[in-house]
Amino acid sequence: EVQVVESGGGLVQWGGSLRLSCAASGFTFSGYWMHWVRQAPGKGLVWVSRISKDGTSISYADSVKGRFTISRDNAKNTLYLQMNSLGAEDTAVYYCAGDPDSSGYSWFDPWGQGTLVTVSS
Amino acid sequence: DIQMTQSPSSLSASVGDRVTITCRASQSIRNYLNWYQQKPGKAPNLLIHAASGLQSGVPSRFSGSGSATEFTLTISSLQPEDLATYYCQQSYKIPYTFGQGTRLEIK
After folding, report:
1. Chain A residues with CB inside 8 Å of B32's CB?
2. Does A114 reach chain B within 8 Å, measured CB to CB?
3. 3-state SS record for B51-81
4. Nearest chain A Cα distance for residue B49, angstroms
5. Are A59 and B94 inside 8 Å of each other by CB?
6. Rounded CA gap, A57 and A63, in Å?
7. What are phi and psi of A29, to 5 degrees?
8. Distance of CA B48 to the CA centre of its chain
9. Does A62 reach chain B within 8 Å, measured CB to CB?
10. CA of A111 vs chain B CAs: smallest distance (Å)
11. Could you tell me which residues are beta bridge partners of residue A21?
12. What is the dihedral of CA A90, A92, A93, A97, to 10 degrees?
């Protein structure tokens, strides 16, 4: 069974840091690009970051560039998101999603259930 | 960034109705367009990839079409379990961007 399980969310103070993890199973993790997508309460989906299969190619949304760091450990089938200098605008459910990058096409599947990050002042 | 605009933002339809949602891109994205369904309180789920490819396990009443800047998602016969918000997403250029969503209600 394909599973993607995020963890590490919670309540953090403004300016603080948090590290999210995403454990994958049931598919060949090292064969997938991986992404983080977030959703603020009651709002739409926003792409945050992506990392290539071997971790050598990384991209970020401008809103998190310089503050967030994506990484992966293929030996542990785990994706990470280190989030620093958090602000109220970072409050959201964070989803981890796989991307098979099939024939040059990208899409998000599978998805995790999400982990909620709340930044308080 | 490529802007994705969905219409309508919300709609109400009856069981059995044919429903169409439109997504427009601010520039040509060829067929690098995906559709997702998000049920209340749940993670999104991929419906359509590359504009018209039906994802495995998705009911055949869902279909996608279009290219360049205009795309549609069609539900041929609406079912009660289709209550959800639907998002389009372009994967042509980083940063990947989503439409604002279309909330579908069942009359």
Report:
1. 105-106
2. yes
3. CCEECCCCCCCEEEEEECCEEEEEECCCCHH
4. 7
5. yes
6. 19
7. -55, -45
8. 8
9. yes
10. 7
11. A7, A80
12. -50
d(CA A34, CA A78): 10
Q: What would the two tokens of residue A35 be?
A: 């992404």
Q: Which of B31, B4, B3, B2 is nearest to B102 (CA)?
A: B4
Contacts of B89 (CB under 8 A, 6+ apart): A45, A47, A107, A108, B4, B33, B34, B35, B36, B96, B97, B98, B99
Q: Report d(CA B89, CA B23) in Å as an integer.
A: 9
- Whether the CB of A94 is below 8 Å from some CB of chain B: the reply is no
Asked if A82 and A21 touch (Cβ cutoff 8 Å), the reply is no
CB A83 within 8 A of CB A119: no
* Block residue for tokens 């969503």: B101
Residues in chain A with CB shorter than 8 Å from the CB of B43 are 95, 111-114
**Per-residue model confidence as pLDDT tens for chain B (107 residues):** 999 999 999 999 999 999 999 999 999 999 999 999 999 999 999 999 999 999 999 999 999 999 999 999 999 999 999 999 999 999 999 999 999 999 999 99
Q: Is B30 exposed, middle or buried (0-12, 13-18, 19+ CB in 10 A)?
A: middle
How many residues make up chain A in this entry?
Answer: 121
Chain B neighbors of A112, CB-CB under 8 A: 43
DSSP letter assigned to residue A111: B
Would you say the C-alpha torsion A47, A52, A55, A58 has a positive or negative sign?
A: negative
